[in-house]
Amino acid sequence: MKTRPRRDRLKPRKRPVQSRSASTVNAIVEAAARILEERGLDGYTTNAIAERAGVSIGSLYQYFPGKDAVTAALLERETAVLWADFIAAREERDWRIRLRLMIRAAVQHQMRRPTLARLLDFEESRLVDRSRDPRAKSANDAIAEVLRMASARSSDNVSVQASDLIAIVRGLTDAAGERGETDALALERRVSRAVFGYLGRPERRSREA
Q1: Cα 59 vs. chain centroid, distance in angstroms?
Q2: What CATH fold (topology level) applies to the domain 74-199?
């Protein structure tokens, strides 16, 4: 069974109050992202992060209890961008367009920094219990809402379907990132075909999303 770090080991020691402190924390988090992209998990250490951020190891530990807490902060930062796009998509009333916008958000999230996105997915599975993660639940709820819009059959287990769709999108985008793909439009089309194919519904375009 996978052993996850205690929740208190994933939380920052303190939140920055002054702009200088915020700049230090931002530098540490961005340094973590760049270390992951350039060296992978094998080279991902607190010493490497501190050196890249231009701060002492003591300064890093002043804000974070360890490497996993830095990773959690990086996950929070990257997920916030994706979730903002999901929130914007929920303004759309046509379920097909809403779903395509969510797919587009996931693809763009992957394509912005593909190596980072793939490694963070791996780290998230190690650090976070997705069944209890409010971000994962919110994403599942957002997809489930689309599925309810698409079907009047109340017997459909939309929560399970939503989890399946998230797994499909995650698998395809991570695989594309691992191959070093750069064509976001081609990937978006493939993911859309897979998602609408799973649902057994035509990907009819009432207007361009």
Answers
A1: 27
A2: Tetracycline Repressor; domain 2 (1.10.357)
